[in-house]
Amino acid sequence: MERDPGLFGPGSVTWRVHQEPILLVAGLRALYLQALHPMAVAGLAQNSAYRKDPWGRLLRTSYYVGTVVFGTTQEAQAAGERVRAIHRRLRGVDPRTGDLFRVDAPHLLRWVHVSLVESFLTTALRAGVPLEPDEVDRYYAEQRRVAALVGLDPASVPGSAAEIAGYFAEIRPELALTRDSAGAALFLAAPPLPRTIALLTPARLAYGAVAALAVGLLPPWARRLYGLPGLPTTDLSASLSARTLRWALAQIPDSLYERYRVAAAASVGVAPRPLPDQF
Predict the structure, then answer these.
(1) pLDDT in tens, 37-84
(2) What is the DSSP letter of 231?
(3) How far apart are CA 56 and CA 184, in angstroms?
(4) 243 in any annotated domain
(5) Whole-structure pTM value
């Protein structure tokens, strides 16, 4: 019996993009971007234990993305239901108004979704993944299926590059650097590492370089909100660094990636997912 290819399958732009290890940088970029929405980052700060277990949270998020992208339809739907069940219980207090809000409010879910998929696609493009404009639009349209998993109406989610650009232009007046977003950004720049790894390996330096790249890949307006330069030279430098890192990651044998995936899955108590043979 042929395996269910899931929400996307061979021939999808999503499978092409998400086979790229450089998307690990995209995930970090998305977190920096998401932290600029005052209510989204307040909901995170008030409900998440990310400061106590940053690597576990990162690995669980990566596993979720891998499941909805490469898993079967049933696995993707089950993962989405788990996320919806968690979000349904969570509330936050808007630090600007004192109002109570639902973490799963559609405008917050939409912000998290758009900033994540735009980070995936932009990082891939700037790292040199070859995509035509129509393929970029197809990627965003395909990602509406992921938006539906977390409870969004797909029709309410931007589904093309032009719609993504319009969405950012519309939401930018809501974005700001708050105490919570500044705290999250500083934490992301230097999260705690296990003592042995920090002392005996260059992991701290390597992570710092990746975090700097993630910030450099942010839109100029986002860097300016963080009080950082929004200069074209920064964009050029980040793009060159992303291309270099993509090339370097391509030299790593697949067997090492597989060992990392198995170890990472075990560390968060899940079974490692076999990746599809075709992309």
Answers:
(1) 999 999 998 987 777 777 777 778 888 998 999 999 999 999 999 999
(2) -
(3) 16
(4) yes
(5) 0.89
